[in-house]
Amino acid sequence: MAGKNEGKKPWLFEYKGTIFPGCAPKENLDAMPDFHVRDDDVVVVGFPKAGNHWCAEIVNNVMQAAGKTSETTMDREAPGRILEFDDKVGDEMWTIHRFLEDKPLLRLICTHLHREFAPRGIACPTGNTKIISVMRNPKDTAVSYYHFATRLGYNENDWETFADDFLNGRWEYGDFYRHVLGWWQMRDNPHFLFLKYEDMKKNTKEAVEKIATFLEAELKEDQVASIVGACTFRNMKVVYDKATEVSCRSVIARKGVIGDWKSMFTDQQNAAFDAKYKENLEGTGLSFDFE
User: Fold this and answer.
1) If 0-12 CB within 10 Å is exposed, 13-18 middle and 19+ buried, where does residue 144 land?
2) DSSP state of 262
3) Tell me: the pLDDT tens digits for 145-200?
4) Strand 107-111's sheet: what is its strand order?
5) What are the residue numbers of the active site?
6) Rounded to two decimals, what is the model's pTM?
7) Taking the mean position of all CA atoms in its chain, how far away is CA 49?
8) Per residue in 108-143, pLDDT tens?
9) Which long-range contacts (CB under 8 A, 24 or more apart) does 5-10 make?
10) Among 175, 199, 176, 187, which residue's Cα sits nearest to residue 258?
11) Where are the domains of the chain?
12) What local confidence, expressed as pLDDT, does residue 1 receive?
């Protein structure tokens, strides 16, 4: 598999059986297990294009409304953009996890890492560390990821090839089910809150309230309403569109809907994704809405 990906997609590489993008190099991944997680850290984990940025925006707004100061991985030069703490920036080996190590304030950390690659303090948290796992149905995730990669210019494949790569774990961050089920193992751990993109979309107010309760943030009704308004897709897209980075302006905020997979999937692809879904999730207690 590594050879295939290196030939067709030179920006991808294999690390311990999982495909990663070049912006998360081996040196960073090697450093992740020993990254020091603090007692007051808040972490958002999720497969790419599962709603990570949206969830992090809500978390950041909740923390600010509750008077909890935070040092986030938000890029000040590109409002609305979140740098994953396992990344490097540009051609330099300046990494977000190195940047965060010396930050004195409460930190909001975001990552796409599988649980097996995450820092020990996130994979098996102690103290008061809080982790929010956001998940999205695999069909919409795949479609969103395809457009994301294509618009950024690092996907050279057509939809048919991309969908097959995604389904078989040959794209960035590897197998979707390996990722979600790894974190799903922690569903009964009080350090974790699990949210689904589809539920957040259908009832954003309830999602804000769940996050606030989980973070022990006491908010008034008008504060909740304000956060819900600020974190609608339309309002967040306005922020993203003002960013100078192409990735923020034209990629992160696209449609923000449930069921967009219907505009892309063939009957054959739909059947293949359904079979993989049943094979991996049957009996796990984890399920998704697709419309």
Assistant:
1) buried
2) G
3) 999 888 877 777 899 999 999 999 999 999 999 999 999 999 999 999 999 999 99
4) 71-72, 107-111, 42-45, 130-135, 192-196
5) 112
6) 0.86
7) 6
8) 888 899 999 999 999 999 899 999 999 999 999 999
9) 5/170, 8/156, 8/157, 9/156
10) 199
11) 20-137+175-252
12) 35
Q: What does each C-alpha distance from 53 to 179, 230, 281 come to in angstroms?
A: 18, 13, 25
Q: Where are the alpha helices (DSSP H) in the chain?
A: 2-8, 26-31, 52-65, 96-101, 120-123, 138-152, 159-167, 176-184, 197-202, 204-214, 221-230, 233-241, 246-247, 267-281
CB burial class (10 A; 0-12, 13-18, 19+) of residue 105?
Answer: exposed
Q: Would you give the distance in Å from CA 168 to the centre of its chain? A: 19
List the beta bridge partners of residue 287. Answer: none
Q: What values do phi and psi take at 259, rounded to 5?
A: 95, 10
Domain at 20-137+175-252, CATH homologous superfamily: P-loop containing nucleotide triphosphate hydrolases (3.40.50.300)
